[in-house]
Amino acid sequence: MYEKLETKDGSFTYRNTEVGATYRSTNGALTESRYTFLEGTRLQERPSPWKVLELGFGTGLNFRVTAEAARAAGVELEYMSLEPAPMPAELWLVPDEWKSLEMNEPFQIGSISLTVVNARWQDFEPPADHFQAVYHDPFGPGQAPECWESPCYQWSLRALEKDGVLATFGASGAARRAMKEAGYLVGSLPGAPGKREMTVASPSAGAIGFAKSWKR
Ligand SMILES: C[S@@+](CC[C@H](N)C(=O)[O-])C[C@H]1O[C@@H](n2cnc3c(N)ncnc32)[C@H](O)[C@@H]1O
To answer: Which pLDDT score, from 0 to 100, does residue 216 have?
Structure first.
């Protein structure tokens, strides 16, 4: 069910053969994680502690990239990630020390805390007005349509701080309209390798002033 793949930047991801999708872009898994989520949310410009809510833990690569950046910057990181269908932990693309965590419990190593919540977003209420960044990283609309519609964006908007930023690889007009309908302001950025565009969104125009405003 899980096929390990080397991607174009030399990093790895998996294909889920049951779902018929890869967890990260085959054009560069690590490059996409860094560019789209860590850099897309401008998390590194925030004060400590960094607080991230992720939709879709998958292989853990986004967590790994963010934890490495937090360590390098000497800041605390609180990372909460939802995953209704976890891969076996031994396959996760994270350092081994993280693989013994218990689902639904915060697991702390040094100044970094990771909670993997074994639930769909529909079944879990994260703390409100809390996170600086949302990594919106489900499978695409073909596999997970409920993650690209307005109720899902209402859910994450409630969890974001007032100047927090959501980032996603998704860039369809339908997804962007759903974000607007939920109450987000929407911005467009060039996408990671192999993708023309990506999307950032925030309740605050200033927080996504670095992106091209999307008004349609
Ligand atoms: C693109 S992968 C995530 C990749 C991951 N962030 C990484 O760095 O490897 C999408 C993930 O979203 C999860 N997912 C699917 N439906 C979901 C839902 N309703 N709520 C939360 N997660 C969901 C899938 O099980 C899958 O692991």
So the answer is: 72
Cβ–ligand 1 contact at 120 (below 6 Å): yes
Q: How many Å apart are CA 84 and CA 208, to the nearest integer?
A: 30
Write the pLDDT tens digit of every residue in 106-141. Answer: 999 999 999 999 999 999 999 999 999 999 999 999
Residue 29 lies in a domain: no
pTM: 0.98
Torsion (CA) 64, 69, 70, 75 in degrees, nearest 10: 180
Q: What is the CATH number of the domain that holds 89?
A: 3.40.50.150
Say yes or no: CB of residue 62 within 6 Å of ligand 1: yes
Ligand 1 midpoint to CA 200 (Å): 18
Amino acid identity of 55? L
Distance CA 106, CA 182 (A): 29
**Host domain of residue 102:** 36-214
